[in-house]
Amino acid sequence: MRGESVALNCTPLGVHDYFMLEWYLADRSGVRHRLASGELRGSEIQGGVHSSRGRSPPYQLDSQGRLMLAEAQVGDERDYVCVVTVGATVTAEATVRLQVFAKPEATEVAPNRGTLSVTDDIAQEIATCNSRNGNPAPKITWHRNGEPLQVPMEVNTEGYMTSRTVREASGLQSLTSTLYLRLRKTDRDASFHCSVHYLLPKGQHGRLDSPPFGLTLHYPTEHVQFWVGSPATTEGWVREGDSVQLFCRGDGSPSPEYTFYRLQDKQEDVLKINLEGNLTLERVQRGQSGIYGCRVEDYDAEEDAELSQTLELRVAYLDPLELSNGEELALPLGGSLATNCSVKGLPTPTLRWTKDSIPLGDGPTLSLSSVTFDSAGSYTCEASMPTVPLLSRNRILRLLVEGSPELRPEETLPKAEGSWTEGDEVRLVCSARGYPEPKLKWSQAGGHPAEPAPGGQGWVSSSLTLKVTSALSQDGVSCEASNPHGNARHVFHFGPVAPQTSQAGVAVMAVAISVGLLLLVVAAFYCMRRKGRPGCCRQGEKGAPPSGDPELSHSGSQRPEQTGLLMGGASGGARRGSGGFRDEC
């Protein structure tokens, strides 16, 4: 390979004590030029280079008699002759031919960027392929859609190629190839490229491909396609109010001019002319349904080519629904109903009645008989179009059922009658429904205001929390629901109410303590009264006659702290009479 070092060997056959070796360069005319020489002295060859003939770096002769070439160049491709002389007359020689290989640079391609007409009946220039600085000269092949093109070198109307090789100043070779083809309409999407094939040492080969390229072709229109784009359904319907796009495409190149029109009374009403082939109808209305057309203005087309297409634009619409009895209707309990739902639309819509998302039946009529409070609620009339899935409407009918209230009592943690104990807490709940909405009233104070009950269906509920007493066991607690159509009443009964055990014990203890305190007070008063009477309050003096002043004085001398009391008691007794005190004693 170019740039590598080369060693040219020359070894005499047999065993010799002495010989002389010479290297020559043979030019293309056969003239030999002496390069180097040497003599065998011992085990080494001693000598040198006589002339490098301008080569850089110069030749060298090593100790084994090899001619050394550093950095092989294309100019080194010559015949080198080795001449060996043994003695005075015996001479032998051998020739080695050196070939230097160079890999070419990346392949370059220059396609024809003009517009090529398929109507021309001659081969036109397609592209030029260049391979630079290789050795030996490479070979160029052309490919279409990955397949090699078998084109000759001779000029003809279907296709051929030309080739030119140039030797550069460096000795390397450059190759240029130009491809000519007669084009067809099928070549509009074809991919072309060229390949450079080059040789390597030891019989190997290499390949360098150019980037692929396409051609710009001019060919007349043969067919036209015209269709409705999104959001059209599979059946071709578009919804009223949507923006609709119409697409028109001809198979000619370059893109022709497109004319959009609408047919009205067999007359063309031109809507738009452009090169893109698109027409947008903003917020289409039902009046825009009809026949639309697209025409390709291609003057190179064949006379029998169909350059115009039409289609029918169908605008689907759905008007608001109408209810024969309005959006709200009141019926008496047990009454009947037959109401209709009507709608205008295209294509013909389907109607269905539902209540709480549960289908009741298909068709425009809703029939109900013997209505109950459960029949009250919202009924929905739904209009839809199977062919236009996203187009639908609905209308809601609110049915009111009038009647006297219906009552539903409930106890939390209920007990059987007779199982209640004084002071037990109970929560009573009364639920009612009817129309107009009933009012709830309790016989006891403390009831919560009525509010919608869980689960809906028109129920309202009120709760009352209280403690059970013996009085409630006799009368119970009543709940009453009323509206203009009547009322309903329920009484919660508790039966006999047992007293609380702990409360009875407290009562007995309280009575015992009260009696004990009363007895203590009476005893104290009794004792105090007896102390005021000597005959009654001293032992051993029963039956003794009342004494006079000396006795009192004596008594007073013995108990001075009670003198005043006794004296006052005696004098009082004298005034009231002694019999009164005795009677008290």
TrEMBL record:
The keyword Cell membrane applies. This is Basal cell adhesion molecule. Residues 536-585 are annotated as: Disordered. Pfam families: C2-set_2, Ig_3. InterPro entries: CD80_C2-set, Ig-like_dom, Ig-like_dom_sf, Ig-like_fold, Ig_sub, Ig_sub2, Surface_Rcpt/Adhesion_Mol. One of its GO terms (molecular function) is laminin receptor activity. Residues 566-585 have a biased composition (Gly residues). One of its GO terms (cellular component) is plasma membrane. The lineage of its organism: Eukaryota, Metazoa, Chordata, Craniata, Vertebrata. It is a single-pass type I membrane protein. It is found in: Cell membrane. It comes from Rousettus aegyptiacus. Residues 1-97, 104-196, 231-312, 320-392, 405-483 form the Ig-like domain. Homodimer. Interacts with ITGA4:ITGB1. Interacts with spectrins SPTA1 and SPTB1. The chain crosses the membrane at residues 506-528. It comes from the Eukaryota. Transmembrane glycoprotein that functions as both a receptor and an adhesion molecule playing a crucial role in cell adhesion, motility, migration and invasion. Extracellular domain enables binding to extracellular matrix proteins, such as laminin, integrin and other ligands while its intracellular domain interacts with cytoskeletal proteins like hemoglobin, facilitating cell signal transduction. Serves as a receptor for laminin alpha-5/LAMA5 to promote cell adhesion.
